[in-house]
Amino acid sequence: MDERDSFYKTTKSLLVLFQLMGVMPIMRSPKNSNNERTTFSWTSKAFIWAYLIYIFETIMVCFVARARFIMFISNSDKKFDEVIYNIIFLSILLPHFLLPFASWRNGLEVAKFKNMWTNFQVRYLKVTGEPIEFPILEPITWTLCVFSWGCSMFIVLSQFYLQPDFPFYHTFAYYHILAMLNGFCSLWFINCTAFGLASRHLQGHVSKIIRTEKPSKKMAEYRNLWVDLSHMMQQLGKAYSNMYGIYCLVIFFTTIIASYGSLSEIIDHGVTFKELGLFIIVVYFMTLLFIICNEAHHASRRVGLGFQEVLLNVNLTTVDLSTQREIEMFLVAIDKNPPTMNLDGYANINRELITSNLSFMATYLVVLMQFKLTLLRQTSQKEPVVQLE
To answer: Which residues pair with 38 in a beta bridge?
Structure first.
């Protein structure tokens, strides 16, 4: 298993980064151990480190959250726009407090997903006679690990320079949160890419075996491999359902508020640096949502539609009856086990999620802008009218 676990070897850097950040403290079992290759325990060394780093980060986050909350309630006559502005940066702090419930709580499911990848690669070798390799994933993973923190520092420091009331010490509460969000986006991208590569390799073997004489037995084995791959995609959504569910809610809420803040600033003061900073937040969160939904869409098409096209293009008159039956059973398996990314029944991750989010955002943004215009009309009516004699 260790020799053929190319997926673990090529993506190990992201797992180590998550352990250092205390985001997902799963561990790899020692060699010659009777345990599963990837394990999760609330008393492991990785989890003890996660407790310590989380306590340290919580002190910083609480300090900044307290300052933001005081700014939020300090003046009862504060304008609505200023109240909304403080909510934006409070909402970005929310994922930190939800981390134990959204990420740690699903540690066993994550370990199960990792072990499914390990076992799949062993079965793939036994069935096809060739190991499945992911050499392209290693440079991608290293690049995304560095980019996750680099992008986080860029976004936070841009707010420090562009927002008038964003003290420098506040930035230390946001670095690890945005890096965590970037890391989960990178994790999703890597897994979806791996699913696409595994599907492509398996399609190649299916195309070759169909041209051989009486390939029905091998087709049954390939069908079982495909079902395992589809179940792994479903397990990915289940393992990270809480984290990505909160992920989408934070993106949805923060994007609406930041979009409103940008438009409101333009209406009141024209184009300023403040709304440029808010616009960066909108683009950042929408990019994360697009990457997650788009990669899930491509992975589902490669694993599902890709195999259907290969099987439907087979000339059934050139194969024997048992092979025809195996092809029909393969198509039924694809229909009954669709390779979808589902967040444990809450939502399907695909391109439709982008359009539905955009429609909801537009609706709530219109409501907020109507409220803004109503406030402007009320303010103008209260202003004294100077009469000239």
So the answer is: 28
Show Cβ contacts of residue 212 under 8 Å, excluding neighbours closer than 6 positions: 218
CB proximity list for 56: less than 8 A, separation 6 or greater:
none
User: What's the rounded Cα separation, in Å, for the pair 15 and 375?
Assistant: 50
CB atoms within 10 A of CB 81: 15
* Contact between 336 and 230 (Cβ < 8 Å): no
pLDDT tens, 177-231? 999 999 999 999 999 999 999 999 999 888 888 888 778 888 888 999 999 999 9
How is residue 382 written in tokens?
A: 């209260």
Report d(CA 239, CA 196) in Å as an integer.
Answer: 19
Distances (CA, A) of 111 to 115, 148, 227: 6, 23, 20
> What is the phi/psi pair of residue 344, to 5°?
55, 40
Cβ-count burial of 321 within 10 angstroms (0-12 exposed, 13-18 middle, 19+ buried)? exposed
- Supply the pLDDT for residue 75: 55
pTM of the model: 0.89
Collapse the DSSP code of 38 into the 3-class scheme (helix H, G, I; strand E, B; otherwise coil) and give the result: strand
Phi and psi at residue 240, to the nearest 5°: -110, 25
Is residue 250 within 8 Å of 91, Cβ to Cβ? yes
Q: Quickly list H helices, 211-272.
A: 216-239, 241-269
Length of the chain equals 389
Report DSSP state, residue 28. Answer: E
How far out from the chain centre does Cα 24 lie?
14
